[in-house]
Structure formats: C-alpha cells, structure tokens
Amino acid sequence: MRLSYDQLDIIKEKMGVDKLWSFSKISTYDQCSWLYKLKYIDKIKSRGDNCYTYFGSLAHELIQDFYEDKIKYEEMISKFEDKVLEWQMLDDPKLKFSTDQERDRYIENLRHYFKNVQTVPHKITNEQAVLAVFEGMEKYVFQGYLDSEYLDDQGNLVILDYKTSTKSGFSGKQLFKKARQLIIYAIGISQHGRMINGEMRQFPLDKIRIRYDMLKYCNVSFMQKNGKIKTTKAERRQWVAHLVNQLRKDFEGVSKDIEKLEKEIAKLQRKMMMKKTTPEEAEGYSVGIGEIEEQIKSLKDDLYDPVQVSEMIEKATLENSLSALPKFIQNKYTVENCYIDVELTDEIVEEAKEEIISLLDDITVKSKEDDKDQAFNRSRIENSESFYCANTCDMKDHCTFYKEYKEHNTMFMVKSDQPSDDELLAMLGLG
Questions:
Q1: For residue range 138-174, what is the model confidence (pLDDT) as tens digits?
Q2: Confidence check: pLDDT of 414 > 60
Q3: Quick one: pLDDT band at residue 86, thresholds 50, 70, 90?
Q4: Which is the most buried residue in 98, 210, 274, 279, by most CB within 10 A?
C-alpha cells in the first residue's frame, strides 16, 4: 500500500521533520556522490527503466500478485512469458542487456523460478509502509515499503526481499552492506511495532528475521557418504550441470557399495569356515550373508555402464532436470528456493546505524554548501565501476564523469589501433 503525498505530509508533521528519507537516497550517495547531486540536488529527470529494473519490477509484481490471490500459481509463468514477449516487441535500446548471452541467462533463470518456485507456507503481506528514526546532526526519518513480510512458526516477523541480481555481493561484509535497507526497516519495526491482523504488536530485534529470496538461484541439497546433508547454490538455468561431478559419483558409488558388501560376505564366509564357529553361529552368518546378497541384488538394478551414465547425465544436463535419471538419483536431491539470511546481532545493527547516520550527516553537510559541484565532486570513473555506469546508472547521459570516461577509452582504443613507428615507416616504404 503506497502512501499518498497528503499522508506523507501528515507523517512529517507528526515526526517534526521537513522531509522524509528513502533508502534509495543514501544508497545513491554511497554509490556515487555525483549521481546523488544530479538526481536529488539538480533534480534531473531519470531516463527510466533499464533491463534489470524492468525485469526486477516484473518479478516482484508476479510473486506478490500470487500471494495476494490475484493470480494462480501456474499463471505466474504464463504471465512472465507474456511480459518477455512484450519486452521483445518494445525493442527499446534502453531496455537491452549488454550481451545476448547475458539476456538469455537472466531470462532463463527467472523462467525456471516461476515454473518451480516454492511458495511460503504462511500468510504474506506485501508492500506495507515502515518508518525508522535515526538521530545524527538532525533527526532523520526513513519511510519505505517491505516487499513481503510474514510471521513464521516461532512467532518471528520475517522481512522477505526479492532479488533478481547476482548473489556475488550477498556474502561476507558485502552482505551487510546490501542488507542496510532491510536493517533500517527492522530497526523501524522494533521502534514502532507492526500491525498484525488488526492488532499492534511489538517486535524486538531478536524477533525479526531478514531474508533474501535470490530468484535467479536455487539451493540444491543431497546426502553425502558421511550421512551429512550438503547444500549448494546454483543458477537455476543450469543447476543440473552444476552437479555433474556429484552425479557421476552417485553412479560410481553403486559399484563401490556392491564391492564393499561382497567383502562383507567374504568376511562372513571365512568366519563360517572357522573351526571354533558353532552351528548356531554359522547359521547366523548364513542369514547375514543372505541379507547382504539381497542388498547386492537390489543395488545391481542401479548398475549402468559408463556409456549409459554419460548419456543419461548429458540428457539431464540439457533438460536441466533429473527426470531422465534413475529414481535412486532423483530421490537423493532436493531443490528449493535460494534464501540468504542476515543475522541481526547487536554488533551488526549498531555498525549499520553508525554507517547510515554517517552517510546522512555527510549528505546534510554537503547539501548546505554553496558550491554543490565541489561538495559532491568525485574522482574519475575506474574500469571497476564502468559496468554500473554503462548499464545501470539512469543519469549517465547527464554525467560529465561518464562522458570523460568514454572519451578517454575512445582515445585509448584509437591509439591502440595506430601502427607502431616501425610499421608506419615500412608502410610508407621508408623502412
């Protein structure tokens, strides 16, 4: 539920502030101070969606519509396909991926998600407003919306955020930087409580959970030889290919298990032949041998020659499904949504608070400077930043730094195409 301008004005008056902050503002500043100036100081109108925001918004809309009973489960994939076709028909240069390969990977991952997503078995609420207050140089009031939220079986309030981005930035220290937005919302909920089924309830931070649903990935779990469950993350479009080596081990494991059981039989047979073995003991060994032979007989049903194994694995990889493999392989694996959870320890929350307040204070100081160009100035764009600038930034057409970066690269490319001094003399017959 998005708030109206009048409602936002009521919140500002109630909180005693003249403006409300959004996470996009501080994340924009943290990404690029010049970008912040262009968007929020100069108030230049953005160039609209790019391919990632287009499909990210679409993915949010589909999964939230399902949870709100606006569409059925099987309609998610059909509506997704309709939107992909609509996107293709638009043929908008601003909505194109950097390469065809990137486009195909991205769309195929989301296609697999909407065909196979495991839905949350709890009542979900979407797009509910949240407020959070921070005290720095000024009183800062954040206002935002949660993708989804629900109560789990332990009475925790789970904040669920959907991500269509890569998982590379969602680990280690980068995870906590990515999680700032949800940490802000968790702090806000702990400050003001949450309306649950018409009742205002309080949730301390230790009863709030932060979780990301990484739509392009899935978690694949399987039992190891040591009896422990191993879970690995894989791109949805090629999760079977991700497991090829493990699948081969599964097939090879059958013959190894048979060999191990045959050794057990040989051991029992030797015991039967020992002079000190009593008839009763021999009978017990014989029964044991019979049971093991039955196990071997059952295992032999799952024996395949190397050519068969290669063919089956190749088919499974191409289809991205285990349906072509024997049941003993299929039953070993579980494929689930790829969730990444963020632990809300006191240390993590306090560190996030300090970073957020520092960013807000920095923006506040610079916004009061007379020379905004100097205040929000930045260093030149490095190659490591170029992907964001070229593919994600909605202000690149207005950015002098990006213009300089492109000109520099063009000069470099032109220069690299020039013949060497020796080549030039040779070309002119002066060598």
A1: 999 999 999 999 999 999 999 999 999 999 888 888 8
A2: no
A3: very high
A4: 210
CB-side exposure of 291: number of CA atoms within 13 Å? 8
- Token duo for residue 24: 């996009």
Residue 377 pLDDT level (bands cut at 50, 70, 90): very high
What distance in Å separates the CA atoms of residue 137 and residue 395, rounded to the nearest whole number?
A: 29
SS3 assignment, position 231: strand
pLDDT at 11 over 60: yes
- Beta strand 208-223 with 194-196 is unpaired
Q: Is 369 left (phi over 0), alpha (psi -120 to 50) or beta?
A: beta
Of 299, 294, 269, 298, nearest to 284 by C-alpha is: 269
What are the φ/ψ torsions at residue 154 (nearest 5 degrees)?
-95, 5
What number of residues does the chain have?
431
Instruction: Provide, rounded to the nearest whole percent, the portion of the chain with pLDDT above 70.
Output: 95
215: three-class secondary structure by DSSP: strand
Distance CA 389, CA 380 (A): 12
Residue type present at position 149 = E
Q: Say if CB 157 and CB 207 are below 8 A apart.
A: yes
Contact 28, 154 (CB under 8 A): no
Q: What is the DSSP letter of 38?
A: I
Helical packing angle, 73-90 and 51-67, nearest 10°: 160
End-to-end CA distance of the chain: 76
Q: Return d(Cα 357, Cα 136) in angstroms, integer.
A: 6
- For position 374, what pLDDT does the model report? 94
Contact 51, 96 (CB under 8 A): yes
Q: Quick count: other Cβ atoms within 10 Å of Cβ 19?
A: 11
